[in-house]
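Annotators were shown the component list below and the corresponding predicted structure, then asked to write short factual statements about the assembly.
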Amino acid sequence: MTIHSDVAATQRQGFTERVEVEELRLRELLGRLYGGDPRLAETLDGLLGDVREAWYSRPDELKELDEHRQRDPRWFESTRILAGVCYVDLYAGTFADLIERIPYFEELGLTVLHLMPVYDAPEPNSDGGYAVSSYRATRPALGSIEQLRDLATKLREAGISLALDFVFNHTSDEHEWAQRALEGDPEYEDYYWIYPDREMPDAFERTTREIFPDNHPGSFVPVQGDRWAWATFHSFQLDLNYSNPRVFRAMAREMLFLANLGVEILRMDAVAFIWKRLGTSSENLPEAHLLLQAFNAVVRMVAPGVLFLSEAIVHPDDVVDYISPDECQLSYNPLQMALLWSTLATRDVGLLAQALAHRHALPPGTAWVNYLRSHDDIGWTFADEDARQLGIDPDAHRQFLNRFYVGRFEGSFAHGTPFQTNPKTGDSRVSGATASLAGIEVDPEGAIRRILLSQSIVLSTGGIPLLYLGDEVGQTSDSSYLEDPGKAADSRWSGRPPYPGARYAERHDLASASGRLYAGVRRLLAVRAELPAMAGGALVPFETHDSRVLGFVRPGGVLSSASVLVLANFGDDAATVSALTLSGMPASAVDAMSGETFDLRQPLVLGPQRFVWLQV
Ligand code: GLC
Ligand code: GLC
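Structure shown to annotators:
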């Protein structure tokens, strides 16, 4: 037997074993979702055929990668893991142009790259690509599917895993399925939630939330033929009907196509909304979890190295429900994101410390994706009950944060833009680039300190840190979207500026603000990489007895490595942590960030926005 056929036989064996396990799980899950539906049996058979076909056409190098990941399933807990996100067109131009940026990604130390949706989408209304017209075709301006595959390969060769979106809650109204549904083809009408009159829409809307109230009220939009279709987001994004098992199969096939392109992380877009039921909010329903688990079972048969990243920007209790090795191994951490901004505004670490103490721990085999901001707005998703526990009125606090971050609060440093203000409910969110939200326009040095302080928390609380590329050199918000008819109504574009070439050009120049910020970010990354305690996500709260100073410990290995005590002063003045507070610590410790040795028998003084990573 040749070596090659040996490898192939082992791989086939692995596939057979996975199918044995996952097929049972899939049958059970789909039985719970679709039991009694006459279409289920035929759908399942078809799906298992799709799975075999996808596995046989999966490229050898991806099968090897799967094996590699299975041998090292905790690979994403490394202290060197670093994710970045960008739009191909804004950041580089085409897929081929993005290949030219790989040397920079290597300089920065990226190990994961999330490309904002690259699929064919209507123009100019595409919701930044989240209105997908075909999952198997790319936007012509970016290049072809083959060029995307080539990019994925080049990234992999550079040690960078490609992450792409699986936008599976909705399609664009130009998707072939939607077109057929709108033309009245009953098979495809059943792929969406389309009704001939307002009766059902009115009934659903009694309990659903408005997500993009600037775009349309309620959850339904009028479509051709005097009918109404469910559209959670924009009117041109029609929600798929997962109560139809054929929709599950159709989307599972698209998912396998993406996996076989070389995508290693699938960002599961808008997971909260995928199942609807009359009389409920149609968010975070139990069936949404069963569906995700079913997708997980399917992908695991074909591409066991692929991970799911949950995008649930909802109440923290609901966010964590999506996280498990059998559902989504990774999840955005919108709570930490929101609370970092809240803490910068209030200079009081109470809510953030509470979140780290009670909402940070995750099951083994899973991780947070921590970030300061994404391509979307910042929503104040903390739990009302958590705020009340600290004596904070949640609504008043959200109103304060909205005013603060759009620069309508006396003394605020921030330059954000309001997003989707809903006069009916008083809700609002905030858009903008990190540097502008931190006030680089008015107070560059203060902004750099605030950004580095916040990034120090993102980079020291564990999990996968995610940078919105360009923010590491201090790109500012951009108002040119106001001149583009496809974007003007959506202020999230203010936070999606074009490639900040001038700032990148001065990134090694410490005389520039970009250079100082970049050097700070690089230093954080380099120090984190060398501290074993920064791996994984284990974290123990540390009470500093000063409302401005956040404290926590990242425990080291049992014998091998030191623990790290993180202390971070969010105040504008020096803060002191008393010797008594530090009495459980060794007599002295070295701050890994500055190299300075601190005598912990003495009070420890931290300057404004200063943080230390003490090896204890
Ligand atoms: C996700 C995306 C957001 C998009 C929405 C609808 O929340 O992050 O940009 O508007 O889904 O697809
Ligand atoms: C998207 C939107 C955000 C909304 C969320 C709901 O992320 O951008 O504003 O709150 O979806 O999941």
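Statements collected:
1. The longest strand covers residues 161-166.
2. Residues 3-34 form the longest helix (32 residues).
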